[in-house]
Structure formats: C-alpha cells, structure tokens
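Sorry to interrupt, but I need a hand with the structure work. Could you write out one complete protein record for me, on any chain you like? Could you add the entry underneath, on a fresh line?
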Amino acid sequence: MKKVAWLLGALLLLVIAFSARNFQASVLLEAGPWWVYFILAGIIYSGYMAFKYYMEDRQLDEEFIEKEGEVFIHRMKEERQRNQAKRQFER
C-alpha cells in the first residue's frame, strides 16, 4: 500500500515539475479571479483526503477479514477435535 502511495506521489511531482518548466507564476496570478484558486485547492485537498481515507478503510477491512479468518480456523479446529473425540468414544 505504501509503495502505491509513494509511486503516486512521485508521479505527481514529476507531472508538476514537467508542467512548471516553462510556466511563470505571474501568468497564473493574472489568468483569472482569485476564488478559482481556492476552488482548485479544495479539489486537490478533497482528492488527497479521499485517497487517504480509502487506504485507511482498506487496511481496516483487511484487519477485520484477518480476524474473522482466525475465528473461523479456531472453530474448525474445535470441530475437528470434537469429531476425533467422538470417533474415539465410539470405538
């Protein structure tokens, strides 16, 4: 999971670096109304938070599945022991 996050971060930095090569900040400031920048910042922040919470939720799901798997294996072992005890008793 962390490798994916690092790769996405590195890719984003490369895209920003490539885009900023021939770009001057003064052009950006003169391009449009000031509120547009807040909207863009909000969109970027929203995407970051969605990705962050998606990864956290995915990790919680994996932990829950792991825990339920352990419970299932424990029940199967108990059932196997009961069956073995039952077979020994019948002999």
